[in-house]
Every structure is written in structure tokens, then in C-alpha cells.
Amino acid sequence: MGRGIMRKLRKSTSRPVARAALAVGAVAVAGLAFAPGAAAVTPTTATATYDCGVWGGGGATLTATQSGTAATITLTSAVTTPVAVGANQISATLTLAKGGGGTRVFSGKANPALPAGSAVKIGPLNGTVAAGDSLNSYFAGTALKMTIFGVAVNCDATTSQSPGPFVF
What we know:
Elements (H helix, E strand, L loop, with lengths): L2 H32 L10 E7 L5 E11 L2 E11 L9 E9 L4 E7 L9 E10 L5 E4 L6 E5 L2 E7 L8 E2 L1
Antiparallel strand pairs: 1-2, 1-9, 2-3, 3-6, 4-5, 4-7, 4-8, 7-10, 8-9
């Protein structure tokens, strides 16, 4: 074949291919724009009541975050510390009941510095969740275990979370 025919043939086949590639790229970008976002926990904040025996009890605020299967919960309780506690001195384990059976456990050694007489704040406590997990107060044993200066503080949940369970 002559050069002129080859050039015309290349031009005539390259334009539709380029247009098709451009169209596929545009569809892909549009798909990303309308793709669902990362899973997020709802609600992000709940309250529940805990009884920590001689250490006191009362309402606690739980704040949850999620990134894929990783989740964290920060808890601010009505229990107060009788002495100042330095940052990251409280080891804690929070157990939540999973709808349909089982539990999910969040744990860590994370707290801000707490002056004497202040409400205990722990977290973020780390845990693993699955899509659709519905987590609420745990009533089948100790729900919150804290160790402060070697002293164990065990707390039982006395109410379900309000406004409802965390759904991941």
C-alpha cells in the first residue's frame, strides 16, 4: 500500500480509538464522583450509665470513629480520679455487645493528663469492626475495665446506649 493510504487509515482508526478512550475515562471519573464514601459509624456519640462499685458511677459519653474495619472509642465517665493521673497511665478495655450475639472489644492505654477530682477520660481505645456491626452496652459481665496505678476498676453497664447502638 502507498504511504497516503496508510496515513489515512491510521488517522481514521486513531480518532475513534482516542474518542473511545476519552469517553471511558470520563465515565470512570464520573463513577468516582458518585461512588459511596467510606463507611462511617452512626451515631458518633452516645451516652450510657456505668456502675464502678466503690469508685462511683453515673453517665458516660462514648464517642466513636471508624476507618474501614478499624474503629476507636473515647469514653468520658462520671467517675472521678481522687489523685492526679499522668497522660497514658490508664489501661482500659471496653466491651460492647454485638447485635446478633458476641462482643467487640476496644482497648488501649490512652488518656490525657487528669488533675485530681476530674472526670476520667480514656481513649481512643482501638478495636476492629465489620460492616453492619451494631454495638451497644454489654450486660453479661464487666463492660469497662480500667487499671490505674495498678488498681483495677471494674464497671458494669446499667443502661443501653442512647440514642442507640453504634452501627458501623
